[in-house]
From TrEMBL, chains A, B:
Lineage, broadest ranks: Eukaryota, Fungi, Dikarya, Ascomycota, Pezizomycotina
Pfam families xrefs: MDD_C (PF18376), MVD-like_N (PF22700)
Official protein name in the record: Diphosphomevalonate decarboxylase
Enzyme class: lyase
The protein's annotated pathway: Isoprenoid biosynthesis; isopentenyl diphosphate biosynthesis via mevalonate pathway; isopentenyl diphosphate from (R)-mevalonate: step 3/3
Catalytic activity: (R)-5-diphosphomevalonate + ATP = isopentenyl diphosphate + ADP + phosphate + CO2
Example of a GO MF term: ATP binding
Record-level GO cellular component terms: cytosol
Database matches in NCBIfam families: mevDPdecarb (TIGR01240)
Amino acid sequence: MNNSRVYRASTFAPVNIAVIKYWGKRDAKLNLPTNSSLSVTLSQDHLRAHTTASCAASFDSDTLKLNGQQQDVSGSRIQSCLAELRRLRHAMEDADGSLPKLSDMKLHVVSENNFPTAAGLASSAAGFAALVRAIANLYELDASPTELSRIARQGSGSACRSLFGGYCAWDMGKAADGSDSVAYEVAPASHWPDMCALILVASADKKDVSSTAGMQQTVASSSLMEHRIKHVVPERMQEMEQAVRDRDFAAFADLTMRDSNNFHATCLDTCPPIFYMNDTSRAAVRVVEAINKAAGRPVCAYTFDAGPNAVVYHLASNRAAVAGVFKLILGGKPGWEGNQGATIGSTAAIPKGAEAAAGVLQAGVSRVILTAVGDGPRKTDQHLC
Amino acid sequence: MNNSRVYRASTFAPVNIAVIKYWGKRDAKLNLPTNSSLSVTLSQDHLRAHTTASCAASFDSDTLKLNGQQQDVSGSRIQSCLAELRRLRHAMEDADGSLPKLSDMKLHVVSENNFPTAAGLASSAAGFAALVRAIANLYELDASPTELSRIARQGSGSACRSLFGGYCAWDMGKAADGSDSVAYEVAPASHWPDMCALILVASADKKDVSSTAGMQQTVASSSLMEHRIKHVVPERMQEMEQAVRDRDFAAFADLTMRDSNNFHATCLDTCPPIFYMNDTSRAAVRVVEAINKAAGRPVCAYTFDAGPNAVVYHLASNRAAVAGVFKLILGGKPGWEGNQGATIGSTAAIPKGAEAAAGVLQAGVSRVILTAVGDGPRKTDQHLC
C-alpha cells in the first residue's frame, strides 16, 4: 500500500427549505423527529455547500474545515456520521480484499458554503448532506440517497432532505433505532420545474435561540405542540404530497403559509416564548397577502424557518407579478444583479394595503436571493483543500 | 307626571386586563365565549370610564355620546343592553304602580374615558360596564353585579368582568340563551391588594385586525384553537383561581405569561395570521424575563391583549425591582410623574441579557401607566352632559 496516496472525492449539495416544517425531536441522540416534513430543494446555482473528503494512511486525525475554520469533530453528531460511513466501507472491504482499506484511514473534510453560514439559510442541512455525500463518493459506496439520508439525519435532521433534488419528504418513521426515519423523493425537480423562490434576507441579529435548543423547549413546554404533531401535520403531509403531484400551486401555497404560521405559533407557545419572526417578517407576510389579493388568487406563498428571513415561493409564470413587486420595494438592495434579477421589471405600484409594510421591508431587508427548485447533490472534480 | 323632569345617574367603571384570555365566540349575537376567562380589575384612579345615563319623557330618541362624539345606537349590541335593562325596569314598574315609568322614556347616555380609546386598553369593556351600571343605577334596579354582567356581556364580552373589582372570572356557561354566561368575583381587591400593574403603551399604528373580527377568524381557521379551548384553558382557569386564592404570585405569573403566549399563538395560527405583538412587545417580554432571572424567581409577568401594549403585573413589595428597571429604561417617557411614579427609583443597571431589548423598548414605547388592582364600579354625583 502506497502510504503517500491521498484518496479524494468532492460534491456540491443543495439547501432545502421546508414547506411542512420539522420542529421537535422524539429522540435527540438519533435526531428522530416528532413529525414528518416536506421541503423544496433549491438550486445549487445560487446556494450550495461544496465539500471535499480525503483520506490517506498518513493522516493523523479526522479533521473538518468549514469556511476556512477548523471545527471540532469530537461531537456525537459528526462522529455518528463518520462511524456509519466507515462501517459501510468496511463491509465492502471485507467482501472484496482487493479494495484499499480506506475505512482505516483518517478523514480530512473541507467544506465551503457560497452563502453566509449564520444567515439562517439551512446551512447545516446543506453542510451535512455534502459531508455524507462526499465521503460516500470517496468510499464508492453503493448506497441509495435514502440510505445516505438515514446517516445525514444523524448529523442534522433536515440534512436528510438535501440528498434529493426537487420535492422531498422526510418520513418520521416508527422504529426506535431510527432505521425507517429517512428521506424520499416525492417528485423530481423536472416534475414541477417552474417553482421559483425569492429569499428576503433580513438584517437581523444572531438568532434568538438555536433551533436545536428551541425545538426541544417547544416539545417540553408548548401545550399546542402535541396537537400539531398528532393532528395537524399528518393530514398536511398527505395534502402537500398531493399538491406537489398535481402541481397545484393554490393548495401548495395555502398549506405552506399555514404550516409556517403553525410552526411559529408553537414557538410562541413555548415557555419562555421563542420569536423567530420579527416586524420585517410580518411585513413580508402582508406584502405576500396583498400580491395574492391583487392577483385574485394565490400566486405566492411565504415560509419562515428558525429566523426572520422570508422565502417566497412562486411559479415562473408569475415571476413578473411577484418578484416585480419586491423589486419595486427592494430594488436598491443587492441580489437583483445577474441574469435572473436583471430580466425582472419592477411593477408600476405597490399592491393596495401593502404600503406601510413596504416601508418596513425596505428598512429591514439587507439583500435578496433569486432562486428556484433544483436537483440533488452533484459530484464535482473541483477539490477544496 | 312632570314632563320636564330629567332622571339621572352616573358611575365610574374600571378597565380589566385578562390573565386567562377571552378569544373566540361560540355565539356571536349573544357574545357567548368559547372559553372562560379571568382578569384583574385595575384601579379607577388611573383608568376609567365615566358615564351618565339620563331619561325624560321629553327625550325624542336614545342617544350615546362617547368622548364628545355622538355614536350610532342602532347596533344590536347596544340595543340588546338597553332592551334588557328596560325589561327589568318595566317589571319593577308593573309590580309597583307608584314608580315613574322610566322604561317608556328615551335614554341619553354620555360617556368619557380618561385614557385614549384606541390605545388598546380595554376601553369597550369599561365603556359597556359603565353604560349598564349607570342605567341600572338610574332605574334603581335590584340586580346583582352578576345579573348585570349577563347584560353587559351582550355589549362587549369582556365588559362583564368590569362590573366587579379585584379578581374576576367570566364563566363561559353552557346554556344556549347565555343565561349562565356571567361574571363572578374570584376574590375582592382587598384579598390581594398589593397586585400592581405597569402598562407600557406602544407607539403603534391602529391595530391590525379588530378583536371582534380577529377572534372569529381564529375560531374559523386556527387548527390549534380547539385544543386551546378544550384542553388548555379549562385546566388553567382552575389553577389561576387557586393562585389568586393562595396569593401565589409565582403561579399567577407563570399562568399569566403562558396564557398570553398561547392566545397570541392561536392568533398567529389564524389564516391569514393576526399579529398583535410587535418588536416592542417582544422586547418587553425579554426585559421581564431578565428581571425575573436576576431576581431568581418570578417577580413580574407580562400579558398582551389584542395590541402591542405590555401589561406587567408585579407585587408592591417588588415594585422597586420591577418598575425601577423600566424607569431606568423609560424614565424619559410620560407617565412617571405623580405620587406613584415619583417614589420609584431607577435601578442601577439593566439586568443582564436585556441590553438590546432595552434599546428596542426605548424606541417603541410612548408612555407608561402605573396602576394597581382596584375595586368595581363606583357611583358618583359628578354628572356628564
